[in-house]
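Quick start: load a record and inspect it. Here is Fibronectin type III domain-containing protein:
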Amino acid sequence: MKKLLLTLLFACTLTSCFNDPDDEFIEQCLTPTNIVLSNTTHESTSITWEDSNTSATYTIEYGISGFTLGLGETITTTDTTATLTGLEANTSYDIYIQSICSNNVSMLTNVTHFTTNEPLVVPQFVNNLSDMHIYTGNLEDLNPSTYTFEYELITPLFTDYAYKQRLIALPPGEAMQYVDNGLPTFPDNTVIAKTFYYFNDERDTSLGKKIMETRILIKQNGTWVTGNYKWNDAQTEATLDPNGSVVTYNYVDNTGQPKSVNYEIPANTDCFTCHSNNSIITPIGPKLRSMHFNNQLQSFVDQNLLTNITDVSNVTTLPDWQNDRDYTLMQRARAYFDVNCAHCHSPGGTCDTTSILDFTFERPFDETNIYLQRFTIQARTQNYANDYSMPLIGTTMIHTEGYNLIEAFVNSL
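Running the structure step on this input writes:
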């Protein structure tokens, strides 16, 4: 009898335990999976994830990589997608996501890392060149931003033997448009930059360089505006300098000879002298016929940087006066004149009303007046004299190779 009572008591105890409402099963809140980031820009990114919970909301916590959980920015959403905005450019971030179910919460996801893109190029003049974001990394390395592209000219302008880096930054999603062999049409907020520098020793470029200036053209509301940035001695920054200056520099050329240059950084008014046509500022260098070599134009088309053209072979090519002897002496000399002189000596140019010369390459020779002015051309290029030698702006010495070409051409007429 005593054993029967104990058995009944034990059975009642088990029954009461299994019926305890505090011990009802609670379904686990599952952690989000398959987190994917997309459409990352310099200031935002989109996130999607998967979730197996029947019904849940989600908390996203994010911050600069290494932030302390609980101190980050948070977003709560009922969707399995979200967009983070207001982020800092070129910055690494961490993201955690947690599901919130009706009765409990999930574990946090493992950390997801991402880095925002570089800042966009700023299409306006600011005091420091670095704040335009044309370059990335150390400024003196001249590493172009991902929003810029470099271009070269088959026949470049002579500027006291300085080396040049040429960049164009188009607004995101925009392109240059083909018009003819000359300048393409550039969209508003295009930035064109040209940086001038010398190598300390041209025989060994690893010995460093001296950057003199960066000239900037910006298209704002259909109009081009100019500005010059002068680099500091430490080569860590360049500042807007509208007044111009002279920088003395000594270097060794590629033959081992010591050279000295009093490099002239032009004032902003000097920029207007060369870049003005019919009193309207315009770019000079990036004409399509000057960039049509080494597959450069086709590359622009392939990258959607140049539109409105299907066959780049329709664009003519300006002769390479220095390296391509397949062209005639006249063609080579006229290419040199076109690049170095025609921006002033052409219809609408600064010298249009003071000179009868027209140096544009396409002009028929009999209409250029080069023959009539051949001895004046020779006199103004064979020696350097301030306010007399040509070009009047941008050079402080004779271009030996260029003059040898001009002399041979004039003597052939």
